[in-house]
Design brief:
With 318 residues, the chain is an alpha/beta fold. The chain has a domain at 8-170 and 215-242 and 278-293: NAD(P)-binding Rossmann-like Domain (Rossmann fold, 3-Layer(aba) Sandwich), CATH 3.40.50.720. Helices cover 41% and strands 14% of the residues. The chain contains 10 helices and 12 strands. It has helices at residues 17-26, 47-57, 72-77, 79-99, 137-157, 183-196, 217-230, 247-258, 282-288, 296-310, and strands at residues 8-12, 33-35, 61-64, 104-108, 161-166, 168-170, 201-205, 211-212, 214-216, 237-239, 245-246, 263-267. The strands form 4 sheets. It has a 6-stranded parallel β-sheet, with helices on both faces. Strands 6-9 form a two-stranded parallel ribbon. The protein has a two-stranded parallel ribbon with strand order 7-12. Helix 5 (137-157) links the parallel strand 4 (104-108) and strand 5 (161-166). The longest helix is centred in the first third of the chain and has 21 residues, at 79-99.
Length: 318
């Protein structure tokens, strides 16, 4: 029998990009309830609000997705906010869940927690072997602190907290705001706008040499639910595809898929971020049978198709 069936589930950030897919992935397990309260009603940076949240919903299982996120530019501009808000939300929520005897806490960490020069593919055992890449260190360390909190609570209180480390996600419904989005939605929006307005070139941050691993959001949601159902271990678990692509290659692929043939100008004054990112995903498959199934090209096509159909809904900061 499913460990999620007839359970009261609470998903913070459930109305967000990843959260919507996690909610849909949870429904077939027939939980007693799935709650995903909004920030307006429960501000997770305020202890009284977090305590009220846990009291009001009495969850059996909490999946903590809520986070302040963004690309390199947003991280560089707001390191204090990225550190404080992400750390305090996780610390307060896990403590209140412990006090309320919540059965399981699923913490969603970040690939940004890895050291800048981690050997590829990244293995979970490398997490503490160096300092994160500087442009997103505040975010990465905040997320790693919550992982450590879960391990400490397991040791002292026998609290069942697990941590998952997803790579960069993308897919329909992503954030396409050029000021705060991640690389794939930012490139899609920039390239389609250039195509539609006949611009002869686009500018892209960095040198294009950095590599990233990307996972389709629906795959990530499935992995999170599988872990919530089947994994109870102390060690963090990578969620990804196990393959990498350079930013230069990625830009060329999106140009081709969007039908744009203009020039790509690389702004070398802007940072590349972490030199390489590619995960060892063997633990996820061994522990709870997760393997990503959406091909990168199919995922990109679906994301581009969604943006072309919904671009009028995207808030304009250009």
């Amino acid at each position: 029998m499913s460990t999620l069936r007839n359970r009261r589930l609470l998903v913070t950030g459930g109305a967000g990009f990843l959260g919507k897919y996690v909610i849909e992935a949870l429904r077939p397990y027939h939980p007693a309830s799935i709650e995903f309260p909004r920030k307006l009603a429960y501000d997770l940076t305020e202890q009284s609000a977090v305590r009220r949240l846990v009291y009001d919903f009495r969850p059996d299982i909490v999946i903590h997705l809520a986070a302040l996120v963004g690309g390199i530019g947003a991280n560089r501009a707001n390191p204090g906010s990225f550190f404080y808000q992400n750390a305090i939300m996780g610390l307060l929520l896990m403590e209140e869940c412990r006090l309320a005897s919540v059965q399981k806490f699923v913490n969603i960490g970040s690939v940004c927690s890895y050291p800048k020069h981690t050997p590829v593919p990244f293995q979970e055992s490398e997490l503490w072997n160096g300092y994160p890449e500087q442009t997103n260190a505040a975010y990465g360390i905040a997320k790693k602190a919550i992982m450590l909190q879960g391990q400490a609570y397991r040791q002292q209180y026998q609290f069942n907290a697990i941590t998952l480390l997803p790579v960069n996600l993308y897919g329909p419904g992503d954030n396409f705001d050029l000021e705060s989005s991640h690389v794939i939605p930012a490139l899609i929006r920039k390239i389609i706008q250039a195509r539609n307005t006949y611009l002869p070139y686009i500018e892209v941050w960095g040198t294009g040499s950095a590599t990233r691993e990307f996972m389709y959001v629906q795959d990530a949601a499935r992995g999170i639910v599988l872990a919530a159902e089947n994994y109870d271990g102390e060690e963090p678990v990578n969620l990804g595809t196990g393959s990498e692509v350079s930013i230069k290659q990625l830009t060329g692929i999106i140009c081709n898929l969007c039908g744009y043939s203009g020039e790509i100008r690389w702004d070398h004054s802007k940072p590349d971020g972490q030199p390489r990112r590619c995960l060892d995903v063997s633990r996820a498959e061994a522990e709870f049978g997760f393997r990503a199934s959406t091909s990168f090209m199919d995922g990109l096509r679906q994301t581009i198709r969604w943006y072309e159909s919904n671009y009028h809904l995207v808030r304009d900061h250009d």
